[in-house]
């Protein structure tokens, strides 16, 4: 996601040593006395961008941009060791303790939404409110939709062929394992991986010809999680479903080809948690889509409207 945002200076830049050889990069922006909000980037591995700040009223929020393990400016870049769902969840709670926050808000998209929902189910008492979009369902069906031959491949067959033929493999699992090797050394593999994802995220958009070091890092981490079936994130997601806070907003584009709406609807239908799902007509996965961007900005503003009176009175239950 790259939204337009005028230059704004951070409140602070810090590094969080979480052990295991990982050093996480943290930027804080906005009002130091505002509503604390952790932004959870997607990918996994995409890292945060200052353009993400365009989603928030920085007079109302204290926004925390944390690059997850191996992502963005965190070090070492693209490190896969000790990089899994449980470690990422532990890092979130470690950050809250480090900042001395009793409760906070969460927001994010795609795999960031997956991570936030699981965290909120494990620690509902720590979440004031949360807003997520383009929610990724990390099930076998969710992975196969992305990388198998019967999901998004059916809608974008030519583009999928380009992704598939960039490595050698027949099955979905073989292709992912082949990419695990090729992404280490082959620029062609990085380009193919990133291109396929961007085709799905914002189809019919002019794509960049070149990809950066951070794109390679993201591709490696995404592949790492996919090869490992997202480290049982789907099991955790289902197990914590009914513990999500009621102050949870979910927004999903009707034309999200990365995280198709039907997978999220099926998950919610299993136990019908008391959360609000808003379908965005014609919306895509990327917030480059103005329909999704405007809907997310409005939802986050509504979240602030609901939370500010509680913070003023000191009532947060």
Automatic annotation (TrEMBL):
It catalyses: Release of N-terminal proline from a peptide. Its main location: cytoplasm. Belongs to the peptidase S33 family. One of its GO terms (cellular component) is cytoplasm. PANTHER family: PROLINE IMINOPEPTIDASE. The keyword Protein biosynthesis does not apply. Residues 36-289 form the AB hydrolase-1 domain. It comes from Shewanella fodinae. Pfam families: Abhydrolase_1 (PF00561). Keywords: Aminopeptidase, Cytoplasm, Hydrolase, Protease. GO terms for molecular function: aminopeptidase activity. It comes from the Bacteria. Its EC number is 3.4.11.5. The active site is at 110 (nucleophile), 256, 285 (proton donor). InterPro entries: AB_hydrolase_1 (IPR000073), AB_hydrolase_fold (IPR029058), Peptidase_S33 (IPR002410), Pro_iminopeptidase (IPR005944). It is found in: Cytoplasm. GO terms for biological process: proteolysis. This is Proline iminopeptidase.
